[in-house]
């Protein structure tokens, strides 16, 4: 279960929305306004003690767009702890680096689409035999 909204992170999330990277802006242009399977995404959304880059509640999906600082060992350790916390909340975490988002946009969107299709729109159960 996802923890309640952390009001203490509201200011930080607003600041991050104003300072989005080029990769985050590009991805947001494809996710905003329910463009992907009608799923609503939020950007720079507080989830527990963290502010995640993109969040889709209907798909229980977090998308992180990582800059080069995520390659540093210490930052990588924090990412692992963050991902573990989010997964314990029942969330799927997708991580893409800035380069992937900027140069392989279609592939990134296909992966997000695939996860949303599985998690936000589960297949309908088959009709019972003999039913109408």
UniProtKB/TrEMBL annotation:
<dbReference type="Pfam" id="PF04480">
    <property type="entry name" value="DUF559"/>
</dbReference>
<dbReference type="InterPro" id="IPR011335">
    <property type="entry name" value="Restrct_endonuc-II-like"/>
</dbReference>
<keyword id="KW-0255">Endonuclease</keyword>
<dbReference type="InterPro" id="IPR047216">
    <property type="entry name" value="Endonuclease_DUF559_bact"/>
</dbReference>
<dbReference type="InterPro" id="IPR007569">
    <property type="entry name" value="DUF559"/>
</dbReference>
<keyword id="KW-0378">Hydrolase</keyword>
<protein>
    <submittedName>
        <fullName>Endonuclease DUF559, putative</fullName>
    </submittedName>
</protein>
<keyword id="KW-0540">Nuclease</keyword>
<feature type="domain" description="DUF559">
    <location>
        <begin position="9"/>
        <end position="116"/>
    </location>
</feature>
<dbReference type="GO" id="GO:0004519">
    <property type="term" value="F:endonuclease activity"/>
</dbReference>
